[in-house]
Amino acid sequence: MQKLEALAREAAQLAGQDAAAPASQSRVIRVLPLTDNEAEVARQMQICNACRYCEGFCAVFPAMTRRLEFGKADVNYLANLCHNCGACYHACQYAPPHDFGVNVPQAMAKVRLETYSEYAWPAPLGKLYQRNGLTVSVALAFGLALFLVLAATLGGALWQTHAGGNFYAVFPHNTLAALFGGVFGFAVLALGLGVRRFWRDVSAGTASAPAVAEAARNVLALTYLDGGHGDGCNEASDRFTLARRRFHHFTFYGFMLCFASTVVATGYHYLLGWHAPYPVTSLPVLLGTAGGAGLLVGPAGLLWLNLRRHPMHGDARQRPMDRGFIALLLLTSATGLGLLAGRGTAAMPLLLAVHLGVVMALFATLPYGKFAHGIYRSAALLKAAIEKRQKNKLQLGSD
Ligand code: SF4
Ligand code: SF4
Description:
The chain is mainly alpha-helical. It folds into 2 domains: 2-120, no CATH class; 123-383, Fumarate Reductase Cytochrome B subunit (Up-down Bundle). The chain is 62% helix and 1% strand. It is built from 15 helices and 2 strands. The protein has a two-stranded antiparallel sheet with strand order 1-2.
């Protein structure tokens, strides 16, 4: 205990020095200047490294034990490996009001936001992560929907029945493909280049097939949202629950089913020459309906959890960004299912314009909002799977 307190005091002193401090005075800051939030994670990791009580909770602690010092890349990697499950906060004997003030989930959450901004492409747009809140998301969806409603009105097609509910009588197929392909392509490019920069900083090692398979399994199963013991995360209190894992699964697989529906419909259109609208029993409609239902249940549950989340778990400044993304997912599924229900009526053009506006807003905000967490966390899980297969140079006993 005395040894731990001495280490903690040393960590606090190290992290308390500013970036301008002489290099010889700081082991943490010597390698690369850390931001205040990164220095706080480095300080807490020094304490955790002496304590190691939470070693079995998640991938963060085994990765931590492979390090004695925490430079910028290490901190960014560990922050994105953290799932913010809250378990180590409730287990920690050094959490506030203890003088050590250890709150790993909160410290990691603050660094994650900095990571997204720092690695964003193009760099000036990284600031959008701080501004991409609920109001911006909903206003953007509303503005784009209004634009498309006006376009349909000018085309004289806003309120009329179209044979078979034909969407392309309202907006031509090629126009929609160019618009949505362009916005989605930009989102993929921006996120891909961002995570590539992150990977270059944090990674040393080649991804073997077993490492890729392990990381993929951890991503698809959300392994660490089981809390390391199978009972789940902490949400509003120290009680464990699997709710977040399940609502994430509804959301993720709902999104993937909707994506699969679009891919199948694209194949029908270009490869088979079968043009929409498709019957209710067709594969694209079945996939889209199942995905839409998942995207209603999952985000609604995540919003409910977000509203009740323990205030010490995360970074309160990021709640608007979280809720903005959840709101766009909910609006996308609700307007999509509404369009399916009303596609044979005169309201179809209006429903279509609103749905397309919401989907466009979702795509436009993908690279600069909460969606990024899935991409960066997947990269961090791959890094963890690679690293655990490498020899531990410290030989101090860990994973
Ligand atoms: S979070 Fe607290 S209990 Fe867990 S390893 Fe760190 S110092 Fe120890
Ligand atoms: S909050 Fe959960 S995932 Fe993050 S470091 Fe603590 S135990 Fe690990």
